[in-house]
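Appendix C: a fully annotated inverse folding record. The material below is reproduced so that readers can follow the format used throughout the book. The structure is listed first as tokens, followed by the designed sequence.
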């Protein structure tokens, strides 16, 4: 029997990308389940979305006395407990160290609201929009990539899509289009990863 893909989603905020994944699992578009949601913050909307979908949530709040690696070690124990096939960083606003990443080679997937190689770090949507108002940027885009190391928003690209910036856009209308594109690309890319995994499983079974 082919197993459904186990997704662990990590979040820090609103969770609209988590919602897109949950919806795609529920309506059968993805042959996958969100088996858990980890957040570095309490009281965020993403947690309510997970709870509504009956998905287990864990909040791992950083302690003042621990450094990044110590925090990530705590994260690893919790993440391994969910036995995920893939860890999806859907607006998880922390850089993960090798302490965490080494446990999930080729299995950590990040979403970056800019085209590959552009606008690394936070507030990429706002920065792209500001550059368009300075009259030189006509578009931005979104990227889904693997996270092999501690590079911020770098790593092998799994998919990307261009999002135009129109002359009459406001930051709100542009952000809205960016988020829609993020939801689409993230779900499509996870779909491709699930199909790859299914293929590998069926080869193993037939051997
Ligand atoms: C997204 O724009 C993502 O690319 C960025 O943070 C935002 C998260 O949005 N890293 P949401 O929490 O999924 O609504």
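Designed amino acids, in order:
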């Amino acid at each position: 029997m082919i197993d459904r893909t186990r997704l662990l989603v990590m979040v820090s905020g609103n969770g609209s990308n988590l919602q897109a994944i949950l919806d795609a699992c529920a309506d059968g578009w993805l042959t996958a389940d969100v088996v858990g949601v980890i957040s570095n913050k309490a009281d965020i909307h993403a947690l309510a979305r997970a709870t509504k979908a009956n998905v287990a949530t864990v909040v791992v709040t950083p302690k003042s006395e621990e450094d990044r690696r110590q925090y990530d070690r705590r994260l690893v124990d919790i993440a391994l407990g969910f036995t995920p096939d893939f860890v999806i960083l859907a607006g998880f606003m922390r850089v993960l160290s090798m302490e965490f990443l080494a446990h999930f080679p080729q299995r950590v997937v990040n979403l970056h609201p800019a085209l590959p190689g552009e606008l690394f770090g936070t507030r990429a949507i706002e920065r792209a929009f500001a550059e368009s108002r300075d009259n030189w940027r006509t578009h931005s885009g979104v990227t889904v990539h693997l996270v092999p190391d501690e590079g911020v928003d770098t790593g092998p690209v799994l998919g990307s899509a261009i999002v135009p910036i129109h002359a009459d856009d406001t930051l709100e209308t542009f952000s809205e289009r960016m988020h829609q594109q993020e939801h689409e690309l993230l779900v499509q890319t996870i779909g491709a990863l699930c199909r790859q995994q299914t293929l590998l499983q069926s080869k193993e079974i037939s051997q």
